[in-house]
Request: fold
Amino acid sequence: MSIESIVKEFQAVAASPARQLDNYKAAGKKVIGVLPYYAPEELVYAAGMVPMGIWGSNTKTISKAKEYCATFYCTIAQLALEMLLDGTMDKLDGVITPTICDTLRPMSQNIRVSMKKLNKMPTIFLAHPQNRKPAYGLKFCIDQYTNVKTALEEISGAPITDEALKEAIKVYNASRAARREFVKLAGEHCGVITPTLRSAVLKAAWFMLKDEYTAKLNELNAELKALPVCDWKGTKVVTSGIICDNPTLLKIFEDNHIAIAADDVAHESRSFRVDVPENDDPMMALALQFAAQDYDVLLYDEHSSSNRRGEYVANLVKESGAQGLVLFMQQFCDPEEMEYPYLKKALDAAGVPHIKLGVDQQMRDFGQASTAIQAFADVLEMAK
Amino acid sequence: MAEMEKTAAPAQEAPAAPMKKAPKPVSPGTAALRKVVSDVYAAAWEAKKAGRPVGWSSSKFPCEIAEALDLAVVYPENQAAGIGAQHDGERMCQAAEDMGYDADICGYARISLAYSAGVETTNESRRMPQPDFVLCCNNICNCMTKWYENIARMHNIPLIMIDVPYNNEVTVSDSQVAYIRGQFDDAIKQLEVIAGKKMDPARFEHACECANRTAKAWLKVCDYLQYKPAPMSGFDLFNHMADVVTARGKVETAEAFELLASELEEHVKNGTTTTPFPEQYRIMFEGIPCWPNLKALFKPLKANGVNVTAVVYAPAFGFVYDDLDSMARAYCKAPNSVCIEQGVDWREGICRDNKVDGVLVHYNRSCKPWSGYMAEMQRRFTEDLGIPCAGFDGDQADPRNFNEAQYLTRVQGLVEAMEQNAKNKAAKEG
Ligand code: SF4
Ligand code: SF4
Reply:
């Protein structure tokens, strides 16, 4: 298949998760909604079900969720609840609600309570440990994952065997490797893989069974590899933040000849940086993977007295050959907001120019963003 | 979490502008409680001067450990509340914003981060030495985790982290206890290094005894709000929060609360009260008060004879336990770490016991974990207790997020609904 036609398929999936849900259901599959962050999707896959990411929506407006949330919560969480309330997600057979930030904590309760009231799907609670590396942290993580596993088994009606889980881990590791490879290739072939296409390819992963997804992505990667490295005349940036999948916003980058060299985005690379060890105890392996997650605004850093994350991101910019960084700051996201001054410090120290774009998913007017990006393009040009 | 500036005039004592009245004399119990907090700050300065390490701690970090190791510890949340109450919150918040911290971040965190970076406060009673180590327990919020990491980075100092994951059930599981116990044991080891000595089990036991005694005395004080009329206003409890936060593990705190309890007992016996107006309605005040706007908060309540006789802090700070495991269990039950059912149960319990006629809910712009399921809670209060609820938008530390006109309207609405309820009840009974 040509690059164009594969990318089109990914674009179609990314643009209509509801159709994906319908298709999987029509094929007799059970589908489990997965809210951010770091839920062990491998368990869902091993149970023979389809995990489907719920990261809000770029086209919906908060309405029913207002019955549960005050206004000062991020749109990602509010719109996730909105879609669970308004019928968009009614075909789901369950939903996993992690609780790693202060918004998701009470949101897990709103979702559980409202789903029960409306007689909708069962909810599966997940609380990750922050002290994740010591033995007691691993143990707690395994206990939590075991709760998730048990709940999934109830929904699927069959036990999740170690064999199935080991297989799922392999499938997911392959998918993560393919996505990392794609990110690299997209950076090298930014003339072909524009910011909007890059986003669509990575976003589609949240709505597809990973074996299907990886097969298609490997195909794309092979096609990209066969191309000569592109002689990019524009500039390149690293993106950072929780999510930046809004096509209108990404189009502005294209209009200004800014390509994405790499990312530090929760919805993208942060979610596939770390593989699961393929060992004999798959539940422990999943916990070890979570323990190894690092450089994340959401996770406790045991070496917090140094500015590891800021420096990691600044290095990423240097190593990827980008000229600067664009931070997509989700409104009301205090974990991101809290880490901004130190990110800025590291970027400034490394001589990396950056802009902070305030965004939310109900953004419909991109005038201000457009002006900021345009101005930044000039700065980047000078940094080349 | 909030705990009040002990030296600030509580709202009901606040002078009506423009004439300045002399502050009312305080009871021996209240004076003793104020001294306890002042001593905590003084001890930290003394330690600093003597070259001993000073810690900054989150309000619900198990204080017993540092106490047993004789480490001087102060509490940024208490400091921030005090700074807010003395009207220096906005300036400090703005200073943090100038450093790049977003205005959406919790006001306590902003104030504390500004202070940590060297911005001095005009509230002299809340000045504290810069930290040599930080103690973070995120049972109240996860914002704490990164807030304290930021402080650790600013000063290049060790951070001791006790992570209490959010709990979806009313009971605390053995799994959670084991996880927290593991962290306690590590925290003790890390603090032994900082203190330069081994933990003496007898001293630890003593600190735990004191903390339990304080918790019990605190709960006893809170329980006096059950009487009709209440011998004090619930706003006083906010004032006394400072002691439960900064000095739970000290014998003086237990003694001061016991003294206050005996004073309240006296009031009940004599049918007197320190509430400066006749009590017509009784409400629960949900959430942390807006410290910078205490006068504005109190005024319409006083005008309408509305006494606050229930605050959720009361049961939420009574950590009572008898060994390390049950201590781990106790620290899992902070207001923002429990499931909605537990949260509702606590509140409805005190609403019933303390016989409230309505609920005033503070949608606190600073506190996302607290306000996040309040709308559903409000529905449950009304459904389960048959009492009206009203919500208002505010902020515990940043006065820019409080709208007095809206607050007045909401209080008025609540009073009218309580009035109607009372009439309906009378008609039914009559
Ligand atoms: S965007 Fe920020 S606040 Fe919202 S769910 Fe994600 S981490 Fe939490
Ligand atoms: S976010 Fe809430 S719980 Fe956390 S420090 Fe601020 S006020 Fe306290």
